Amino acid sequence: MRQHLWSPIFRGGLLYSEGATVRQGCLAYHLRSEILRRGCTVFEDTLVQRATEVEVGFLRQTPSGDLKATNVVLATNVALAGLPSLRPNVKSFSSYACMSRNVPEAVETHAWRGAAGAADLV
Description:
Blueprint: E1 13-15, H1 24-37, E2 50-54, E3 57-62, E4 65-69, H2 104-109, E5 118-120
């Protein structure tokens, strides 16, 4: 952990090397903007009644009709972890970060390397 982030108050931690800290609101806003800019249609708040993997991708059945796509992005929230059938396979956790502006000297002081999220777990 210390090779990625050093802090005199961290006593131990867990590093998810494949993860990163993401501002979900900004990601969603810019992803939606880019999709619309490219002329695609965005279906928001659509109830998916059935999801099936088919030979050429995915089939999503909704009250208004079926959607076939090669790739699908499924955006959910923490409620997914409350479903008994999914609970063993979904782990929800939270992180709290507050930054008003970039502070390069603070990042350098703590030797933070990369964008992986970190937490003091002890």
